[in-house]
Automatic annotation (TrEMBL), chain B:
It comes from the Bacteria. This is Iron chelate uptake ABC transporter family permease subunit. The lineage of its organism: Bacteria, Bacillati, Actinomycetota, Actinomycetes, Kitasatosporales. Gene3D superfamilies: ABC transporter involved in vitamin B12 uptake, BtuC. Keywords: Cell membrane, Membrane, Transmembrane, Transmembrane helix, Transport. The chain crosses the membrane at residues 37-56, 91-109, 121-140, 146-165, 172-194, 221-239, 264-286, 335-352. The keyword Cytoplasm does not apply. It is found in: Cell membrane. It comes from Streptomyces physcomitrii. Residues 1-22 are annotated as: Disordered. SUPFAM superfamilies: ABC transporter involved in vitamin B12 uptake, BtuC. InterPro entries: ABC_BtuC-like, ABC_transptr_permease_BtuC. It is a multi-pass membrane protein.
C-alpha cells in the first residue's frame, strides 16, 4: 500500500511541471532517452524526483530516530534546530571560506548538524526535559542561527542573492551530480538507522529496563545521534532546510503500526518521500508556471498538523 | 497553658531584599521592594546617560555638555537641528521600543512560565515581518505603509495564536507550542515572499527583518508614545494578578484573580505593544527574550518584574545602538545584528544554566 503510494507520487513528480508533457512523452523520456527536448525535461525531473525520494526518506527516518531517542513526540530535525545548524554552517562555508562545491560544504553541514544535535541531545537527555522545553530550546536556537544568517546576508549582497533561495528548502536545483554526491552519506545513515530499530525499542522502556534487557545505552544513543546527523546534514546540504516532514510522518505511521520501531522506521522511510514529493508536486501545481519551494509547502501543511497534535489532549506518549 | 516557644523558630527570619509598604489612609497599599526600585533607578540613569552619548555620536560628533545644553533649549541652531530633528527622535524610538519589547517579553515569559517564551520566539516578530514583507514585496509600499502592514501582521498573528491555543482557557504549554507552530508557518511564508522579491526589495526587506533604528523620526515617536501611554499602565495594573498567576491557575483563582480575563488583558497589551514596537523598528532580535531575564537577575525579586524589564529593555537597546555605531561605523549595520549576536550568546548560556538547574 505504502509502496503503491510512493510509486504514484514519484510518477506524478515526473509527469507534472511547468512544461506540460503527455504520458507518451514521459514514457519515452524515462525508457527511451534520445535527447529530444521533452526527454531532457524528463531527465531533470527524474533527478529531482530521485533527490526528493532520498531526502524525504532521510528526513522521515531522522525524525523517527530523534523522537525515539529523546522520547519526545515533538522532536523533528527542523524544529530542534538541527537543519538550521546545518544551514548556518553551509552559509558560513560559502560566504567566508569560499567553498562552492557540494562535496566541500556537505562536511560543514555535518559539522553544523552535529553541533546542534549534540546540544539538543544534551538538553533532551536530561530527566526533566518535557516536549515543550525541548521544542522551545530548539526554536530559540533556530532563531539565533537565522539571525546570524540574516547578518551574513546583509553584509554580503551576493550571498543574499544565492542564499535566499537555498534557505527555504527546495528540490528545484537537483541534478544527478548532487544526487550522487549525497547518496553515500544518506545510504550509510539509512542503513545505520535500520539496524538501530531493536535497541531503540529497548530504549523506549526507560533506562533501567533497557539496561536490564542488555541494551547498550551509550552506544545506541551515540549511534542514533550520528545517524540522525548524517541524514539531516546531507539532506540539508542537498536541498536546504526542510521542516516538519520528520515530525508528521512518524506520527502518522505510529497510528497504524503501534510503538514498534522495527515497523515505524521502514514505514517512515517509505511514507516520508510520499509527503515530500507530494508537497513538491503541489508546489509546482499551485502557482504554475512558477513554483512554491517544497520547504514552504511542507511548513504550511506541517504547521497546522503540529498545532493539531498540540491541541490533542493527550499527546502521543512514546 | 501555652508552652513558651523558644529557639530560632520563634522568630521567623525573612530572607531576601527588604520590602517596604507605602500605605495611604484610605487603605491602599503598594509594596515597594527596595532593591527593585534601586535597580530601576540605576537603569533609568544608565539609559539617560547612554541616550545623551548616543545623541552626540554620529558623522557630526557633539560633546556631552553641548548635547545637554541643546536639549535644554540653549544650543546653537546647527546643533539644535541635528539634535532635535535628527537624533532625538531616533533615541526616543529606541527607548520606547526597548521598553515596549521588555514589557511584552516579561508578560509573555510569565504567562508561558518559561524563560524562553518570548514574543519573538513565539511568532509575533515573524508575524510583523510577514506584514512588512507583504507590503514591501507585493504592494511596494512606502515606509508608513510598511509600518502599518507590520502592525497588522503582528496583531493578526497574536490573535491567531491566542485563539488556536484556546481550549477551555489558555494553558502555558499549549500557548508556547501553538506559537512555535505559527512561527514556523509564518517563517515559511516570509521565506517565500523573500524569494519573490527582486534583489533591491529583498535587501530592503532584510534590513527591516533584522531590526534597525536608522532614519527614525518624530512620525514614529508619537504613535508609539500614545500606545505606550495607554497600554503600559494597563499592564502594570495587572502586574499583581500576573504574579499570582505564576502560582498556577487554580491557586490564582482561589485568591480571587479572574484568570482568563487577566490573562487576556495582559496578553492583549503585550501583543499590541510588541507589534507597535516591531512596526517602528523591526523585530529587534532577542531583546524581548533577554531584557526580562537580566532584569530579574539584577533585582533578585520574584514575579514578572514588569517595570525593571521595561527599564532594562530601554537601556539595552540604546546601548546596543550606540555600540553598533561605534563598532561598525555610523549606520553600517542595523542594530538587530548586534542584539542578535549577543542574544544568541546569552541564549546558549541560559540553556546551559537552566539545564544545570534542572529546569530544561
Amino acid at each position: 500500500m505504502a509502496l503503491v503510494l510512493l510509486v504514484a507520487v514519484a510518477a506524478a513528480s515526473i509527469a507534472i511541471g511547468a512544461k506540460p508533457l503527455s504520458l507518451g512523452q514521459v514514457w519515452h523520456g524515462v525508457f527511451q532517452d534520445s535527447g529530444t527536448f521533452s526527454d531532457v525535461v524528463v531527465g531533470e525531473r527524474l533527478s529531482r524526483t530521485g533527490l526528493g525520494l532520498l531526502a524525504g526518506a532521510s528526513l522521515g527516518l531522522a525524525g523517527a530516530v530523534l523522537q525515539a531517542l529523546t522520547r519526545n513526540p515533538l522532536a523533528d530535525p527542523g524544529l530542534l534546530g538541527i537543519n538550521a545548524g546545518a544551514s548556518a554552517a553551509v552559509v558560513t562555508a560559502i560566504t567566508f571560506l569560499g567553498v562552492n562545491s557540494l562535496t566541500g560544504y556537505v562536511w560543514f553541514a555535518f559539522a553544523g548538524a552535529a553541533a546542534v544535535g549534540v546540544l539538543v541531545y544534551a538538553l533532551g537527555g536530561s530527566r526533566s526535559a518535557t516536549p515543550v522545553r525541548l521544542a522551545l530550546a530548539g526554536t530559540a536556537l533556530t532563531a539565533a542561527l537565522s539571525g546570524y544568517l540574516q547578518a551574513v546576508m546583509i553584509v554580503d549582497d551576493a550571498a543574499l542573492g544565492k542564499m535566499r533561495f537555498w534557505t527555504v528548502g527546495s528540490l528545484a536545483y537537483a541534478n544527478n551530480d548532487i544526487l550522487l554526491q549525497v547518496l553515500p552519506f544518506l545510504a550509510l545513515g539509512m542503513l545505520l538507522t535500520l539496524f538501530l530499530a531493536r535497541p531503540l525499542n529497548a530504549l523506549a522502556m526507560g533506562d533501567d529496563t533497557a539496561r536490564a534487557l542488555g541494551a547498550r545505552l551509550t552506544r545506541t544513543r551515540a549511534l542514533s545521534l550520528g545517524a540522525a546527523t548524517l541524514l539531516c546534514g546531507a539532506a540539508t546540504a542537498a536541498c536546504g532546510p526542510i521542516a516538519f516532514v520528520g515530525l508528521m510522518v512518524p506520527h502518522v505511521v505510529r497510528s497504524f503500526t503501534g510503538p514498534d520501531q522495527r515497523w515505524i522506521l521502514p514505514y517512515s522511510a517509505l511514507l516520508s518521500p510520499v509527503l515530500l514529493l507530494g508537497a513538491d508536486v503541489l508546489g509546482r501545481l499551485l502557482v504554475r508556471p512558477a513554483e512554491l519551494q517544497v520547504g514552504i509547502v511542507t511548513a504550511i501543511i506541517g504547521g497546522p498538523v503540529f498545532i493539531l497534535l498540540v491541541r490533542r489532549q493527550r499527546m502521543a506518549q512514546l | 497553658m501555652k508552652t513558651p516557644r523558644n529557639g530560632p523558630a520563634a522568630r521567623p527570619v525573612r530572607k531576601g531584599p527588604p520590602v517596604k509598604s507605602l500605605r495611604t489612609r484610605g487603605g491602599l497599599s503598594v509594596r515597594v521592594e527596595a532593591r527593585s526600585a534601586l535597580v530601576v533607578l540605576l537603569l533609568l540613569l544608565a539609559a539617560l546617560a547612554a541616550s545623551v552619548v548616543l545623541i552626540g555620536t554620529g558623522d557630526y560628533p557633539i560633546g556631552f555638555a553641548d548635547v545637554v545644553r541643546t536639549l535644554l533649549g540653549e544650543g546653537n541652531p546647527g546643533q539644535e537641528f541635528i539634535v532635535n530633528d535628527l537624533r532625538l527622535p531616533r533615541v526616543l524610538v529606541a527607548l520606547l521600543v526597548g521598553a515596549a519589547l521588555g514589557l511584552g517579553g516579561a508578560v509573555f515569559q510569565s504567562v508561558s512560565r518559561n524563560p524562553l517564551g518570548s514574543p519573538d520566539i513565539l511568532g509575533l516578530g515573524q508575524g510583523s515581518t510577514a506584514g512588512a514583507l507583504f507590503t514591501i514585496v507585493v504592494l511596494g509600499g512606502s515606509a508608513t505603509q510598511v509600518t502599518l502592514g507590520a502592525l497588522a501582521g503582528g496583531l493578526l498573528t497574536g490573535a491567531a495564536i491566542y485563539l488556536l491555543a484556546w481550549k477551555r482557557g489558555v494553558h502555558g504549554y499549549r500557548f508556547v507550542l501553538v506559537g512555535i507552530g505559527a512561527a514556523a508557518i509564518v517563517t515559511a511564508v516570509n521565506g517565500y515572499l523573500l524569494t519573490k522579491a527582486d534583489l533591491v526589495d529583498a535587501a530592503r526587506a532584510l534590513v527591516w527583518m533584522t531590526g534597525s533604528l536608522t532614519g527614525r523620526d518624530w512620525d514614529q515617536v508619537w504613535p508609539l508614545l500614545a500606545l505606550c501611554a495607554v497600554l503600559v499602565p494597563l499592564a502594570l495594573v495587572n502586574a499583581r494578578p500576573l504574579r499570582m498567576l505564576e502560582m498556577g491557575d487554580d491557586a490564582a483563582g482561589a485568591l480571587g484573580v479572574r484568570v482568563e480575563r487577566t490573562r487576556l488583558l495582559l496578553m492583549l497589551s503585550a501583543v499590541v505593544l510588541t507589534a507597535a514596537a516591531t512596526a517602528a523598528a523591526g523585530p529587534v532580535g532577542f531583546l524581548a527574550l533577554t531584557a526580562p531575564q537580566l532584569a530579574k537577575r539584577l533585582t533578585k525579586a520574584p514575579g514578572p518584574n514588569l517595570v525593571p524589564a521595561m527599564a532594562m529593555g530601554a537601556t539595552l537597546l540604546v546601548v546596543a545602538d550606540w555600540s553598533s555605531q561605534r563598532i561598525f561605523g555610523a549606520d553600517q549595520l542595523p542594530v538587530g545584528v548586534l542584539t542578535g549576536v549577543l542574544g544568541g550568546a546569552y541564549l546558549l548560556w541560559l540553556l546551559v544554566t537552566e539545564r544545570r538547574a534542572g529546569r530544561i
